[in-house]
Amino acid sequence: MTRTIAIIGGKGGVGKTTLTSNLASALAQLGQDVIAIDANLTTPNLGIHLGLHFAPHTIHHVLKGESKLNDSIYPHQAGFKFIPASMSVEDLEGVDAGRLQEITFNLIGKSDFVILDSAAGLGREAISALNASDEVLIITNPDLPSVADALKTAKLAERLNKKIVGVVLNKIGKKRYELTRNEVEEMLSYPVLAEIPEDRTLAKALFAKTPVVNFDPQSPAAKQFRKLAHNLVGVPFIEEKPLAFKLVDRLVEWINT
Questions:
Q1: In this predicted structure, what is the pLDDT of residue 238?
Q2: In angstroms, rounded to a whole number, what is the distance separating the alpha carbons of residues 175 and 179?
Q3: Which domain does 35 fall in, by range?
Q4: Which of 187, 183, 192, 184 is nearest to 227 (CA)?
């Protein structure tokens, strides 16, 4: 059964696209067939994150009836597939965001997961992404404005009878003024499934146009993305020990034999 999940957070800049690309990759590493969709039609970024800035066929072309859906699905070297959006302002003309639901419906049975990178805010595009999905993963930063917007998003998803899987707390810097995990869970009434720290490796991975779970699987952020993927699939996440610790374990084992 295909699971359709909208990545949404209300506020812009909280990390929806980063979460979409890395979750798709982490799920693919677990053997899942994944299709990620850039559902942010006005300010798309998924193609930029994945190294396909100007695709010949995009979700805009599909929504306008100018391209077939299968022609707009591209494979990524990380093991998943994705549908980019057009970077051209001209392609916004004649686009019906309401047809997103039709696209995800046509992908049912063709993959294990369909992940939608939604637009910022709670406008028509974001609502269309919600309507096109069965489940919702809320992403927010540990500050009051972001969490307040996330709360509005949660209430809207509830009104639309969507299943809210949980919350991803992103850009954690462990500063005194940041909201804690418990405070976020209390405000939103949903569990925090992953806590993504501020990690310089994320910027390096973006420059390399590849998800950080592939760029540096052992980085702090990558471990959290992988942990989230394990959670969604229902597979226990066992964190690998660094090589130095493995060597010490082997040395101790050799001494004790």
A1: 83
A2: 9
A3: 3-256
A4: 192
